[in-house]
Amino acid sequence: MSDDLQKLSTWTCIKIMGPMEHNLTGILADFSAPLKAAQVPIFAVSTWNTDYVLVPATMLDVAVTALKADGWSFV
């Protein structure tokens, strides 16, 4: 991403690693719970094999800290 575009970006995307099996349920609910507790607003997009969660770029550190404390890992 170019520096100019990154300066204008107000949201950052976190991809939940997929593909996931179609019978899995509650992934997005489990993922968003620690973000809610940390008062991080989200915009979620689901596809047929994974989910994407957008968080405000200014709150990315708060989001990552909350998710790691809940046991989520990042690649």
TrEMBL record:
What Gene Ontology terms for biological process does this UniProt record contain?
Answer: amino acid metabolic process; carboxylic acid biosynthetic process
Which InterPro entries has this protein been placed in? Answer: ACT-like_dom_sf, CASTOR_ACT_dom, CASTOR_mTORC1
Which SUPFAM superfamilies does UniProt cross-reference here?
ACT-like
Domain CASTOR ACT stretches: 10-68
Family matches, as Gene3D superfamilies: VC0802-like
What is the protein's given name?
A: ACT domain-containing protein
